[in-house]
Specification:
Number of helices: 8
Radius of gyration: 17 Å
Largest sheet: 7 strands, parallel
Strand order of the largest sheet: 3-2-1-4-5-6-7
Order of helices and strands: EHEEHEHEHHEHHHE
Distance between the termini: 34 Å
Low-confidence stretches: none
Mean pLDDT: 95
Helix content: 40-55%
Shape: globular
C-alpha cells in the first residue's frame, strides 16, 4: 500500500538516497530542500527547518498534493565544527536549532495527522558522533545525542497510537560533505571502521526503509547503528 513519506534534507546524500528508496518501494514521496530544488520522482518543497512558518507551509503543501504524512524521516542538519575554546555561541546554537529543534518542529507537525490516523512512523537521523563524541564537534554531537532522548520520549508518548519513533545512527558516509575533507581524511575515517570502509548513502537508506516497514512494526525507541562497527552498538 502506497504511503506518503516526507524526507527532510532530501536534496542530496542520505536524504536523497532515502527518498529514492521509498520511491522504488512505490510510496508517494516529498523531500524538503533549503536552497536548490532537486529533481526526481518526488515532490520537492522548500523548507528551512529552523523556521516554524516554513515547516507549516511545507506540510500544508505536501498534504494538499499527496495527503497526510504517514512516514517522516527527519534528516535535515548542518555542521559548524570548531574546538570548544574557539567555538562561537552562535555556532553552537545554530547547529542545535537545525539538528535537534528542527527535528522537534517537523515531528510535532507530522504527529497531528498521525494521531488522527492512529498510525505512523518517525525516523530521526542521528550519528555515531552523538554516541561516541568527537573533538571539534561538541555542538554537532550534542544535537545528535539529543535526538536519542527526544525519540525515546516520543516513543513512550505515541506508542499507544501505533506510532513508532526510532533513530538511525550512521557512521562515516560517502557524501558531498565528507568528500570535501579530502582523500587522506576519508582514509583515516575508514581505517577506524572495523569493516574498513565508509558507508554508501543507500546503505543508510536501507536501514531507514526497514524501520518504516511492516517488519519493524514492533520496534520503537530503538537506536540502529549503521556504522560498520565503529561504535560497537553504542
Amino acid at each position: 500500500m502506497s504511503r506518503v513519506v516526507l524526507v527532510t534534507g532530501g536534496s542530496r546524500g542520505i536524504g536523497r538516497a532515502t527518498a529514492e528508496r521509498f520511491v522504488a518501494l512505490g510510496d508517494k514521496v516529498a523531500v524538503t530542500y533549503n536552497t536548490t530544488a532537486p529533481s526526481g520522482d518526488f515532490l520537492a518543497v522548500q523548507c528551512d527547518v529552523t523556521q516554524e512558518s516554513h515547516v507549516e507551509r511545507a506540510f500544508t503543501e505536501v498534504e494538499e498534493k499527496l495527503g497526510p504524512v504517514e512516514v517522516l524521516v527527519s534528516n535535515a542538519g548542518i555542521t559548524k565544527d570548531g574546538l570548544l575554546l574557539r567555538m562561537k555561541e552562535a555556532d553552537f546554537v545554530d547547529v542545535v536549532d537545525a539538528n535537534l529543534t528542527g527535528a522537534f518542529r517537523v515531528a510535532k507537525r507530522a504527529t497531528q495527522s498521525m494521531l488522527r490516523a492512529r498510525r505512523g512512523r518517525i525516523i530521526l537521523v542521528s550519528s555515531v558522533v552523538g554516541l561516541l563524541g568527537q573533538a571539534g564537534q561538541a555542538n554537532y554531537a550534542a544535537s545528535k545525542a539529543g535526538l536519542v532522548g527526544f525519540a525515546r520520549s516520543l516513543a513512550r508518548e505515541l506508542g499507544s497510537r501505533n506510532i513508532t519513533v526510532n533513530v538511525v545512527a550512521p557512521g562515516p558516509v560517502d557524501t558531498d560533505m565528507t568528500r570535501k575533507l579530502g582523500d587522506d581524511k576519508l582514509k583515516a575515517f575508514a581505517d577506524l571502521v572495523p569493516l574498513g570502509r565508509v558507508a554508501t548513502p543507500d546503505e543508510i537508506a536501507g536501514a531507514i526503509a526497514f524501520l518504516a516497514s511492516a517488519d519493524a512494526a514492533y520496534i520503537t525507541g530503538a537506536v540502529l547503528p549503521v556504522d560498520g562497527g565503529l561504535g560497537m552498538g553504542h
